[in-house]
Design goal:
Aldehyde Dehydrogenase, Chain A, domain 2, five-stranded parallel beta sheet, single chain, alpha/beta, binds NADP nicotinamide-adenine-dinucleotide phosphate
């Protein structure tokens, strides 16, 4: 076996990846590794499919509708795959699969209304007697590179808009999480009517297979979700391609005394620790007004200590292992650095008997510490007390990242000021920065990226405007 290619798995077992559980190291499965030649074959076949068999809008919508239906029917199967390969707690994995159903539905809606616009050519004397309008045509072959942390829904955020836009896709999932993508591709082709060659899954390392996609002249657009260094490296490597980047963050939330800080603590219990903090918008930096800092910290610590740490397939588990042991070591080192620098570990900071990092709350961390300055991508939040809200907003903005930020306040003037002052791709009021709807424009500023994802916005990126002029 080798690459999942055009609806079939082509035989070639020269090289394989053994995917192991991040929780207990048990073998989940073995996947064949693609070669750069496989990528070339996939891109050439995808380009031919677009040229020879363009998909009409009704067909795109029908495929996407069917995908939403079949995914809904196979939800438990997909959730189990996610839980196993990403060590995502099963109840969180179910929520991801359910969101992916919605992402397909929103993409189907976009396919049905995809259109251009009239251009009033006779507004210029030279255009008198001419009819002008635009079409939205597929941009070409889409190269999609996805991360491990939402191995289904973030892949659907690339594949579903591409189908709506009429574009074939060559998809590289993260090496740790290939099975969600392979199963999805099989479902789309075998059960939903997506023509073979409209979706190719290629497996292998970012350096080899990712770069083969990025470098291929037949790929028109790269849609990448992952870490900032890799993303901006791709941007620099492919200056003539359209490159959409969805990258990291160290999401801040401000909690004002007028805000419902108990509700904030309850939401952060989820938003800071879901999938062990391995979400690009995981709540990380908490700024609390000094008058409520003590009470809020006690409330949050008590809530976090209720989180159940355990195996991903256990129904009770809230927090499981990070994606790799090296990640557990890295985050543990960052916690140790904060402790050595004078911060207090209010709870957690240890690794349990199964090697899982226990949910951690840090107080008194300073802005220069890694747990504040960088993206932790682990089950860690920091709490910093502030005196006035301007200072809090300045601290929230003091970041290389800019994906989503939030504030809890019941004062409308403060809320309105925050949505203008907080320099982020998304600002949430009375909600954690971890909240996202799949139809919203989602993306960041600064190091966090250069685009907005969400079916309506991605379809625009994945189509070109073609101007049509008809002379009478
Ligand atoms: P990553 O290491 O950057 O990997 C992402 C993808 O890129 C994987 O498929 C990876 O392949 C591939 N890759 C690695 N090096 C490459 C290269 N030189 N050229 C081309 N592709 C390459 O990120 P991750 O650890 O999987 O994901 C975590 C990061 O993603 C975090 O920073 C998180 O904030 C970010 N993220 C952002 C969003 C968003 O929407 N803004 C959503 C989720 C995650 P391999 O797996 O084979 O290494």
């Amino acid at each position: 076996m080798s690459t999942f290619h055009g609806g079939s798995i082509v035989a070639r077992m020269a090289d394989t990846i053994t995917v192991r559980s991040p929780y207990d190291d048990s073998i989940i499965g073995v996947v064949p590794v693609s070669t750069p030649e496989d990528v070339d074959r996939a891109v050439v076949a995808a380009a031919a499919a677009l040229r020879d068999h363009p998909l009409p809008l009704w067909k795109r919508a029908e495929i996407l509708d069917m995908a939403a239906r079949r995914l809904g029917e196979r939800l438990e199967e997909f959730a189990t795959i996610i839980a196993k390969e990403a060590a995502k707690p099963i109840k969180t994995a179910r929520a991801e699969a359910q969101r992916a159903v919605g992402t397909f539905q929103f993409a189907a809606a976009e396919a049905r209304k995809l259109s251009g616009e009239m251009v009033p050519l006779d507004a210029l004397s030279a255009g008198e007697g001419k009819l002008g309008f635009t079409l939205r045509v597929p941009i070409g072959v889409v190269g999609a590179i996805a991360p491990f942390n939402f191995p289904l829904n973030l892949v659907v955020h690339k594949v579903a808009p591409a189908i709506a836009a009429g574009c074939p896709v060559v998809l590289k999932p993260a090496s740790q999480t290939p099975f969600s993508s392979i199963t999805l591709a099989q479902m789309l082709i075998d059960e939903c009517g997506l023509p073979e060659d409209y979706l190719h899954v290629v497996i292998g390392s970012g350096g080899t297979i990712g770069n083969a996609i990025v470098d291929h002249p037949g790929v028109a657009l790269i849609t990448f979700t992952g870490s900032p260094p890799v993303g901006w490296g791709i941007r620099a490597r492919a200056p003539r391609k359209k490159v959409g980047l969805e990258l990291g963050n160290n999401a801040p939330v401000i909690i004002e005394p007028s805000g419902d800080w108990k509700a904030a603590a309850a939401k952060i219990k989820v938003g800071g620790f879901s999938h062990a903090g391995q979400s690009c918008i995981s709540t990380q930096r908490i700024y609390v007004h000094h008058t409520i800092a003590g009470a809020f910290t006690a409330e949050l610590v008590a809530a976090v200590e209720q989180l159940v740490v355990g195996p991903p397939l256990d129904e009770a588990t809230d927090v499981s292992a990070l994606i790799a042991k090296s990640e557990t070591e890295r985050v543990s080192e960052w916690i140790a650095e904060a402790r050595a620098g004078g911060a207090t570990i209010a709870t957690g900071g240890t690794v349990d008997d199964h090697g899982v990092l226990v949910p951690t709350v840090i107080t008194g961390a300073t802005a220069d510490m890694k747990v504040c300055r960088l993206e932790v991508f682990g089950p860690v939040v920091t709490i910093t007390a502030y005196d006035d809200v301007d200072e809090a907003m300045a601290m929230a903005n003091d970041s290389e990242y800019g994906l989503q930020a939030a504030i809890f306040t019941s004062d409308i003037a403060t809320a309105l000021r925050a949505v203008h002052v907080l320099d982020y791709g998304g600002v949430l009021v009375n909600e954690v920065p971890t909240w996202r709807a799949d139809q919203q424009p989602y993306g960041g500023v600064r190091d966090s990226g250069n685009t907005r994802e969400g079916p309506a916005y991605s379809v625009r990126e994945m189509t070109e405007i073609r101007m049509v002029v008809i002379s009478g």
